[in-house]
Amino acid sequence: MAQMNFGGVTENVVTREEFPLEKAREILKNETIAVLGYGVQGPGQACNLRDNGFNVIVGQREGKTYDKAVADGWVPGETLFSIEEAAQRGTIVCMLLSDAAQIAVWPKIKPYLTAGKALYFSHGFGITYNDQTNIIPPQDIDVIMVAPKGSGTSLRTMFLEGRGLNSSYAVYQDATGHAKERTLAFGIGIGSGYLFETTFKREVYSDLTGERGSLMGAIQGLLLAQYEVLREHGHSPSEAFNETVEELTQSLMPLFAKNGMDWMYANCSTTAQRGALDWMGPFHDAIKPVMEKLYQSVASGNEARISIESNSKPDYREKLNAELKALRESEMWQTAVTVRKLRPENN
Length: 347
Ligand SMILES: NC(=O)c1ccc[n+]([C@@H]2O[C@H](COP(=O)([O-])OP(=O)(O)OC[C@H]3O[C@@H](n4cnc5c(N)ncnc54)[C@H](OP(=O)(O)O)[C@@H]3O)[C@@H](O)[C@H]2O)c1
Hints:
With 347 residues, this protein is an alpha/beta fold. It is 56% helix and 15% strand.
């Protein structure tokens, strides 16, 4: 465990140097890892573990996704089974189904979670909100988590490129006395770059806040507000879009990613510096109460309730698609289509 200084705060991280793959293989050599679900995280984690020499099987219901697993080399009856059969065969049972599916499938797999097995998650949702999900594991199994900080597709691509996505890890229940080493070995096995410690609750609170906040919800709200104000004051769509989104994503974001926002501020015109320094405060003050309201909604379980209720309805996909269609057809994102076409690399 290495101690690292994050902006003045010391945290423990686990790297591949101190926890090499050989050690992970040794710890998990007698385990059968059963990956339930072959959506996005399922293939990333299952294929990386298989390529790293672990004993992996997949549990997936029949249909298009099952066929994808077959195409990826999982063999029916040998390494590919129904969800129930994989749960029965596995000693580390991995819940890589969608959050709504985990609720639906839980009663069917629970009988197979016998003493000494580990139940593994990549998200704290099912356990943290178990008053709503009813996912209450037996006392005599380990309950562990490794949550890659990115999509399953990136996990796989970065693994194939010899790089690694960072992951958080947590132990919720240690029945065997080996839960932590099982967790870390698993995290190294799926190809994590480094692992940092969290709890199930902190993982899901930060994840739900992030996607509703600066990663997705807040950023769309901010961009649209600026685009609308420019349009309402007579600016053309192309001008409003270029000043709001195109310059941000094409010019600033790569520099901001590489060097930080502090560097960005120090390397723009003094006119931009004066204005940005003056306006960052009012924006912060306007947004912080909304962010706090969002966090409270996550912490109270309200966001989980909304998501479980809406995503469990039979027509949930159609309803989501209708809202996504409205976003796609909005003037700002239709302007984006034309702006992208005009980029030199697309001509
Ligand atoms: N998306 C990410 O990259 C990401 C990143 C970090 C953590 N995570 C976490 O990883 C876990 C898996 O997420 P994911 O995005 O990979 O999930 P996903 O793609 O939404 O999972 C879909 C899987 O669930 C199965 N499924 C859906 N409904 C089902 C049902 N009623 N009965 C049985 N199987 C059903 C699907 O099978 P069918 O195709 O047959 O429906 C498919 O195998 C979640 O806890 C998520 O929060 C995800």
